[in-house]
Design a protein that fits this description.
13 helices; five-stranded antiparallel sheet; 509 residues; alpha+beta
Length: 509
């Protein structure tokens, strides 16, 4: 696979554990204690697997339980003005349109209706029957698939898990196994790459990508697996979850990956990895015209793969959650796969001193009009090393202090051939000219344009008003070796920073 996963228990023979039926591996016992009243449900799973006399199933149960304390569902419920729950189940209707109409009727009858987000930790809510069924079905699918000889560790990480993210828990394996049996049948004849192209075509035939088109009424960051089939639509993150459910239901290893932030654009992206019989990675993006073995079309800051198990190298394993910026870095179950999809390099940044003595600095990219933390590194004296950063982008080292991103050094441009630290030279200045560029920058007559450079904040160079026939704007007294930002009065926060090379050329970042 090219990636080493942290995997507990596999190297420890089961016989090394106490023979007592109530003695479990330390990692399992720690989670069982956290489960409280639901401990009995988890112990039923262990008992079932022990009676089954299949040592791999017992290891699988231990794997799921030992890592279960970091997993949870985000669901919702409806309540009235008296905080009384209103019964509503979308699956009680023949199709999603009918379910939506029923919901509208409820809203009309209950003008003071509230929609509440509910967080349900797996260790407190998962039931034994659900987990046992998941284990049994995943083993049957795996042992009859082309992936039956992959390492057990990979099976546990990429086939066995009952969830992909924070979606509501729903019984999904049987339905998906039946609906997508053609995938298993076809892959044994046509091979994995060809069948993945068919999976992408199948998605395009019945599923609607809602990204940028509609917002969900419910506070659901992810749809459950049965909701995906029922609603037949969802955002990018739902689409990659759908592919994981499809492939894993057929015993084919797969993962959900995400680009935390584009390094040279606004937004982020979600995509998949499938794996062949030798666990070689096959990039998959069913939303792309070239779905299989597709290449990224712009610079990523980081590409991360979501795992089920806790990974020892994650920031949240040693740093307090409140000291970590909101987002994926607060989680423990991801690995960095940027090198698989983009050219990378380590970046060493010299840091400004801080009275707070932080242990960690963050690599930020300019995304959506803000410096957004996208990776981290441990501080060593007055510098930090950010590992495997995507080339072709600019990164700002920063501290996270009192819930704020604080610049910790000068921006660094990691090009494909060289690295440049952008320390603005405010002594040696020059005049720079900015040309229009089709599709990216067209000057509007009578509108103002402000040029800024970065020096621990965006500092104003000058402001120009575009003439009726303007195709070029000139700005005097601009510092050399600086990162610039041109902001029009009609800004929507999508402007990209850039540098001006010694020969006067503009390079967007």
């Amino acid at each position: 696979m090219g990636k080493q996963l942290f995997f507990i228990f596999l190297l420890t023979p089961l016989l090394s554990f106490s023979q007592s039926s109530k003695s479990y591996p330390a990692e399992v016992e720690a989670v069982l204690k956290k489960a409280g009243k639901n401990r009995i449900e988890l112990e039923k799973v262990i008992t079932h697997c022990k009676k089954n006399r299949d040592p791999l199933k017992l290891k699988a149960a231990y794997f799921l339980i030992a890592n279960m304390d970091i997993h949870y569902s985000i669901d919702y419920c409806l309540t009235d003005g008296a905080d009384k729950k209103i019964e509503y189940n979308e699956f009680a209707y023949p199709n999603y349109d009918k379910a939506v109409q029923a919901l509208e009727d409820i809203k009309h009858k209950t003008p003071d209706i509230n929609v509440k987000q509910v967080v349900l930790p797996d260790i407190h809510h998962i039931k034994a029957d659900y987990l046992i069924d998941n284990i049994e079905r995943s083993f049957r699918a795996w042992r009859s698939s082309i992936a039956k000889n992959i390492p057990f560790a990979d099976f546990c990480e990429y086939i066995l898990p009952y969830r992909t993210s924070v979606e509501p828990l729903q019984d999904w394996r049987f339905k998906y196994q039946e609906k997508y049996k053609w995938v298993d049948d076809s892959v044994k004849v046509l091979g994995i790459n060809k069948v993945l192209s068919y999976v992408a075509a199948d998605y395009a035939n019945w599923f609607t990508d809602t990204y940028g088109k509609e917002q969900r009424f419910e506070p659901l960051p992810r749809l459950g697996p049965m909701q995906l089939l029922f609603r037949k639509k969802g955002a990018c993150e739902d689409i990659v979850d759908l592919q994981v459910f499809i492939l894993r239901s057929q015993g084919l290893p797969s993962s959900m990956n995400f680009i935390s932030d584009w390094a040279t654009s606004t937004g982020r992206h979600f995509l998949n990895s499938a794996f062949d019989e030798q666990m070689r990675t096959i990039p998959l993006d069913v939303t792309s015209p070239m779905a299989v073995d597709n290449k990224l079309y712009r610079e990523p800051a980081k590409v991360l793969r979501t795992t089920y198990s806790k990974q020892p190298g994650t920031l949240a394993r040693f740093e307090e959650i409140e000291d970590i910026p909101e987002g994926y870095m607060q989680t423990q179950n991801y690995i960095d796969i940027t090198k698989e999809l983009w050219e990378t390099a380590d970046i060493k940044c010299k840091l400004f001193p801080s009275q707070n003595s932080p242990k960690v600095a963050y690599a930020c990219v300019y995304n959506g009009g803000n410096w957004t933390p996208t990776w981290w590194g441990k501080i060593k004296k007055d510098s930090v090393n950010f590992s495997a950063m995507g080339k072709g982008a600019v990164y700002l080292p920063a501290y996270y202090i009192n819930n704020d991103i604080v610049p910790a050094g000068y921006p660094v441009v990691q090009g494909f051939n060289q690295e440049v630290t952008l320390i603005p030279d405010t002594v040696n200045k020059r005049t720079i000219t900015i040309n229009e560029q089709a599709k990216y920058l067209i000057f509007r007559p009578g509108k103002s344009y402000r040029l800024y450079y970065w020096d621990n904040d965006w500092e104003l160079v000058d402001e120009q008003i575009a003439a009726s026939d303007a195709h070029i704007l000139s700005f005097e007294d601009a510092p050399k070796n600086a990162l610039f930002l041109l902001v029009p009065e009609y800004s929507q926060g999508k402007e990209r920073p850039f540098i001006i090379t010694d020969d006067g050329k503009r390079q967007w970042l």
